[in-house]
Amino acid sequence: MAQMKRILVIYTGGTFGMLKNEKGVLVPQKNIEQVVRRLPQLHDEEYWTENFANTNVKDYLVLPDGKDTELKVLYKIYEYEELKDSSDFTLDDWIKMARDIKRFYHDYDGFVVLHGTDTTAYGASILSFMLEVVGKTVVLTGAQIPIFQPRSDGSNNLLCAVLIAATQHIPEVTVFFGSKLFRGTRVKKVSNTRIHAFDSPNFPPLLEAKTTLDVDPKMLIHPAGSVPNECRIHDKLSRKVYVLKVAPTITPEVIRAVFDNMEGVVLETYGNGNMPIKRRDIYREIERAVKNNVLVVNVTQCFNGTVLGKAIYETGLLLVECGVVPAFDMTSEAVLAKLSYVLSKTELSYQQKVELMKTNIRGELYNPQH
After folding, report:
1. pLDDT average, residue stretch 133-139
2. One domain for residues 253 and 316
3. Which domain holds residue 303?
4. What is the pLDDT of residue 54?
């Protein structure tokens, strides 16, 4: 018998397994494994019957043979008791996922998380920071069209995600969608209608599914053999973080309302990190918050681009002088996740947390000063 790889697929909810309810709206469905078992591109029923039906791996599914690997890839779907639309996800849901990856870590060769698309970018970033050490491939995926529908993109997304988890050694959190594999801390959802729903604005994909599935090792954070085969998680996260978008109608009262009782704020500014220069009342509120040890990070509203530590325009200089931290080329989702992680490191001083925000630790940023 061919060498086997075992993958755990954690089904959390999302569009992948949704059907319309009596009100005509999509909701997650239970027992998704029964649906997947009937799809020949996702399960080789004949092989399973001949080899596994009466064994201790009878609850696994088996990928059909293909040219991507000579391995026999088995996978088990671990379905959560409460399935959610990802818009309902909170930090507690991602903490549960991280803990489950750790709990089952030594039982499987890789992990796939079936996740709703709306918060995939948040989930991938948060899991990336929580999994401080992970020596196996973790892939988040989902669907724009439910698996029950004939045009579903879910089949290929799941197939590729399982194959990547089984055949590629990528010891970090990733997202596969459409035809590309992205770093978890670099991904953004860019469309709610296109099949290619995700992109990576400031970093190239790790892999593109063509006639083969091959990753360039130079794209990875960790060189081959440099990560121990273990899983270590940090599952205490700050919940006092939020994103505030600068708009022409912003007021000191808005700044104060958001910043009060927060430990960290992602400040989405114009262009290279700019705000209206005439609004000194706004700057005073930001400066007050920073003096009270609120960690404020300046990220561009632009889909692609950077906010550097040195202001380019006068309209960005005051934020630097206020002590606001530049995000460099991080996404808002990655900044929010990193703030939540860094702020929970109670052993660090405020200044150490500032420095950690400016340091690349999960492939989330490029800082030309380092």
Report:
1. 97
2. yes
3. 241-357
4. 83
